[in-house]
Design brief:
Structural class: alpha/beta
CATH topology: TIM Barrel
Radius of gyration: 21 Å
Bound molecules: 6-O-phosphono-beta-D-glucopyranose
Strand content: 5-15%
CATH class: Alpha Beta
Number of strands: 14
CATH superfamily: Glycosidases
Amino acid sequence: MNYQHSIAFPEDFFWSAATAAYQVEGAHLEEGKNLSIVDKNINPNYADTSVTSDHYHRFKEDIALMKELGMTAYRFSISWPRVLPHGRGEVNQQGLQFYQNLVEELRENGIEPLATIYHFDLPACLQEEYGGWSSRQIIDDFAYFCKVLFENLGGQVKYWFTINEQSNMFLLPYLMEFDQELSLEKQKYEMNHIMTLAHAKAIKLCREVIPDAKIGPAIGLSPNYPESCRPEDVQAAREADDFRTYLFTDLYVHGRYRKNIWRYMEEHGVTPTIEEGDMELLQSAKPDFLGINYYQSRVVKYAPESLENKDMSINVDGKKGETEFEVIPGIYQGSSNPYLDKTDWDWEIDAIGLRTLLNELNDRYGLPIIITENGMGAVDVLTEDEKVHDEYRIDYLRKHLEQCRLAIADGVELFGYCPWSFMDLLSTTSGFRKRYGFVYVNRTDDDLKDLRRIKKDSFYWYQEVIRSNGQKL
Ligand code: BG6
């Protein structure tokens, strides 16, 4: 439904953009920083994490560009092994100082810092010591990391995201490490439970240390459409949403497991270990908002019991058609959407799906929502006269923002938009070949060149969007 009178974005809307530490900072072993599991496990066919966009050394220049763009907020993440090189214990003062300088510089430029505490980069030493997220020991270590951040940055940072894409890490666990001897599925549900406990503790701690702050998760979500109106397919789409979305959001918001998923876990012998007090902790830590990473929707159909179980295999090289869909026999299997265009990485471009998702979440949970990621990965071309004509990205973002405006008119309390990404950075799966930024970073996977910053056409477009508070899309 369209409305006769278009609605405006709220006056205090956060016009933001996002990045994550290991994808932009570089300096992966400088000034006391230690290795994370991402530093060790990033796709070896592309650039590594040692330099990336060199933001660690150029953050002032980058913040000046954010100001020029007109951003009113900036979502970034904090590297755990930069602040705590041993995962716990002694704080690396130089590492902490970097983030203090960063948030100070943002504030001086009128940009609200939006900090993600955990964006995939677990200290490698904790993985080696006790298996990282597979052990409950991590809950205390994560709480300690949070305490250091809240106590030292809490005066300046009033918006916090606990964990980035807990949901996707279980669908696409390309950066996680698992015990080869144990059932993968069982490990995922155990880790999910442990992560949710760590998230809940972080929320409670935040409320104690910075009572005027707001905190919530940043969840990676894709709504599932049925491939046909065959009732089996419609039910399969519902269940896909339960497994891939509502399992996580119900845990975060209500502190409970969905009954159908719990029964599935029992029947498959993969229930997580629940200790005394766990569910009470989860129930006592309702987030202030939901952060949503949205890139695409998905299509599913019923998967007969006779099929073989199969994990999703994602397209990492940007050659169309390489994605292989997941199959969960008796529940659902993925399929492609003939009505949608796709990126070179097979991501299906569906702006309306964002409105659908926002409304669905609003109806279920009634919490304020911020879009913590949304964007289009592409091979950008730098012309001889130093331009990047990324009209495909402008088109993608414009269509998604139009749907955000409609969702606000529908009644969704949307308070910010953080396109992915502010500048070109190391893609989690595909290095510097796959770019997302408003600002081009002059390097390739093999050649660091001069890392010069160049404003793309989308930079000037977003500048106008912000200047008009979203009236001019
Ligand atoms: C999200 C992550 O999953 O998607 C980001 O939070 C990531 O870290 C982004 O970069 C895009 O994915 P990719 O693989 O294209 O870099």
